[in-house]
Amino acid sequence: MAGNDWINSYLEAILDVGPGIDEAKSSLLLRERGRFSPTRYFVEEVITGFDETDFHRTWLRAQATRSPQERNTRLENMCWRIWNLARQKKQLEGEEAQRKNKWRLERERGRSEAVADMSEDLSEGEKGDIVSDLSSHGETNKARLPRISSVETMEAWASQQKGKKLYIVLISLHGLIRGENMELGRDSDTGGQVKYVVELARALGSMPGVYCVDLLTRQVSSPEVDWSYGEPTEMLPPRNSEGLMDEMGESSGAYIVRVPFGPKDKYIQKELLWPYIPEFVDGALNHIIQMSKVLGEQIGNGHPVWPVAIHGHYADAGRDKLVQLLRQGRLSRDEINSTYKIMRRIEAEELSLDASEIVITSTRQEIEEQWRLYDGFDPILERKLRARIKRNVNCYGRFMPRMVVIPPGMEFHHIIPHDGDMDAELEPDEDGKSPDPPIWTEIMRFFSNPRKPMILALARPDPKKNLTTLVKAFGECRPLRELANLTLIMGSRDNIDEMSGPNASVLLSILKLIDKYDLYGQVAYPKHHKQSDVPDIYCLAAKTKGVFINPAFIEPFGLTLIEAAAHGLPIVATKNGGPVDIDRVLDNSILVDPHDQQAIADALLKLVADKHLWAKCRANGLKNIHLFSWPEHCKTYLSKIASCKPRKPRWMQNKNNSSDDESSESDSPSDSLRDIHDISLNLKFSFDGSKAVIRENIDGSLDSGDQRSKIENAMQTWSKGMAKNAQKSGSTTEKGDQKFPALRKRKHIFVITVDSDGSSGFPETVRKIFEVLETERTEGSVGFILATSLNITEIRAFLEFEGLKPTDFDSFICNSGGDLYYSSLHSEDSPFVVDLYYHSHIEYRWGGEGLRKTLVRWAASITDKKGEKEEHIVVEDEETSADYCYSFKVQKPGVIPPVREVRKLMRIQALRCNVIYCQNGSKINVVPVLASRSQALRYLYLRWGMDLSKMVVFVGESGDTDYEGLLGGIHKSVVLGGVCSSASSLHANRSYPLADVICNDSPNIVRTSQGCSSSDLRAQMEELGLLKG
Known about the structure:
InterPro entries: Glyco_trans_1, HAD_sf, SPP-like_dom, SPS, SPS_C, SPS_pln. By secondary structure, the protein is an alpha/beta fold. The chain is 40% helix and 12% strand.
């Protein structure tokens, strides 16, 4: 571990002064050590995984103390702290073992229940515990990454893509992203992923059949970063390519699109971006809508062209990172969450598993050691579900995303491997100057003999990159030092004191090791290099017949290994992670245990000393390297996307285009979106108000022809009534507006999402808002939406009791987002109209009856024992349930498990849903994973063109467990002081605090005073610029 060189010295000092310490006060560690080795104990049992920085400072102070008594006191204190650290480590290990055992039992129980629900006997293909189809390329090494055997093979594939004009959206929010001169290593957020997503976008934009690629990221207009990061768009021109890429056909190309969100003049780290993600979602949605219209005019015959895929990219997996940080013991779980917002990240990753069709990984290691840690992915259950899907057997609403291994690509056309060596004399150019790249001179100035083979390591000075072990291995192996030089490219730096703590610590440790082993003249560590210098660095190492090494403790993939192999360098790499997969294909590496210093030295010495082995590894790497080319990566990528069922707004589908009606064959366990018969707007009237939806059969047909006839007649009557009403009022509306009551005409939309906490404040709040906006209501310039956990029957009863009319609201978001209704102008007969297109949208991944049975079984298990009697606390509420909302009554809100536990239980059984505790915990609504009140508002924006920036959302001080989604985004929010404050108890057991995801200082959020008087409410809306003073 970095910075441990002082351990031996201070332990030896402890032993030296040991006899001088008063026996009565001597530490337990010293007094009872016997044949015990403090040095070995400390290094192997305590320091491994613990932060010793504070000890180091204490030891330095003790070393500088002249008074023997004070020095002894300090050392004695350190001994007790060492013992305490050991105890902490044992405690953490015990807690981790308990967590793992609990997780394993929960996983096995959930899997057995899921299998039991799927009543059909398992076939042989469903048995076993191997992740099927982990790789996109087959089972054998060579089959897993099929090589492009010839240009003709690729051209044959390209010819199949002709006529396709795909639009693809990539998302990568953190770090600084631009097309050229990327500042890789500038900070922890601007690393290899930045380069990967840029090159992926560029490569996809050059592929046949791809018309446009947008890479969405954050716009940063800050004086602390370059001005280029503030440009709204940046084109990514294709790299010079041979053959196929030169004839890619009609294409709009690839672009970086920077969406403004968060502080406009500040560059912030990814952990602080969470409160602003909804703002990005709104901005990205707006961009995609506009692009769909533009592309529709260009290539869609006037019909919108929607993205064929939206691909999100993000940093290290949260659960794996949490495990690693806990093992280190430097921070407690609460401190980790506070620093890295790790629980919010984990929940976001679980949500991605809920909604994703495909998860693309670089290696098997990501699946086996990272994704299987999540509640939402179980390799064994995934295998069983996939086998059932292939046999066309019912999965009872269960879904598991498909894991696909596609290694990152690389550009090879510009790489010319060097066959020469440093013994060859380089002739100067016409000006008499050396033709060597400048970075060569910068590196070789460190060496006393620059002609020796170069061992090259290229990584940030991060503890997990394990560079100190590499330096120790080099320094302690005399034959290796005599045969080779060591080059460490550790990012760029100006001043070590200005570097982050861990990076600075690693760098200082390396400098101390260089001094300790007297490696001057044998180790190079230049301060600066540009991204464009990296190919020249590889070339220099290859020219000296050197070796590339990646000694990281864990390497998720190892793109530098691909780059090094492309330049003709043999490789020594860690055996943990991606390098294992890479070596199976390239066969040019020696894999080592990164903790084994001697093994690292032996592997390096073997490659440097054995020229035949060096030449063999070099030749293998060059022969197989094109398996990792960008064209091959994109070919596999696009083929996997094509296997997914397309999803797009149903009301915008081009019915004249038969290709839109064709569903591509998909092997995912989802039935995606059902075809729903189009009845004008695909809206249904609620005649009795008691049921949200007239149920459909599995094939999508209505229960009876009479009902369909009634609905069609009602629709015609409603449309005539709208036209008649418009003529009476003298208003002029476009033909499209006649299909919808009012939303398109409103200047502002006011959304009332105040939740009920058992008090009588909700009706008063509605009346108060209406009173403040009475003038605007009369003019018709504003509209209202009621978003609530109530169903449509409860809403109708509420309106009648309060003397309100359905037409006082333009829309009703009911059942916590499970249903969407509009008020009908023909309200005497049919006051509410349900939007079936909304149902077709949220139906995605909905578990249906299989989910309901599992929820009922869970509810029956929640009991409160009183002596020998058990009382059921959660009971199914069939009366208020609907097709897309299963409701449950809660008898004792304080006794039920936290909402995160219910979500976890459903995910373990591969059931995708959104669980919401509402009405102050007295009710539970379970809706589809894509359904919520905030998502329903975005749906209305997408369908009817409502301007989100002119939308105002009224919320209480707290609310249902979907409360956080209502406060983010570009809309305005008004928090009503003193309203629904008691519902905060629902958020007491959250996995992450609300402060992590809500920006309290946002200019879009205002708060009224306690009591929320009408004058105060109007003043706040005037402050937002919504009303005139």
